[in-house]
Amino acid sequence: MIDRESTFADPEIVSFIKTKTVPVAIDQWNQRRQKDSEGDFYRKIAGQGPRNDFDGTTQGLYLAAPDGTLLGYTNNRNPDRVMQFFKESMAKFRPANTKSLAVETEDRKYVIRPPEGGLVIRVQAKVLDGYEQTDDKFIQIFQAAVSRDNLWITAAEQQQLAAGKFPERLTVRIARHCLVDNTRGEAPAWKEADIVSAKIKITGGKITGHCEMKLADGSRSYSADVLGEIEFKDSHVSTLNMVAKGMYFGSGPYTPNAPKGKFPLAVSFTLADGKDIADAVPPEGARGWVADYLR
Amino acid sequence: MKRIVLLLAALTVTSWTSLSAAGLSDAEFRKLHAELQPDNSALWRTVPWKISVLDGQQKAAEEKKPLFIWAMDGHPLGCT
Question: What is the DSSP letter of A280?
Answer without folding.
Answer: G
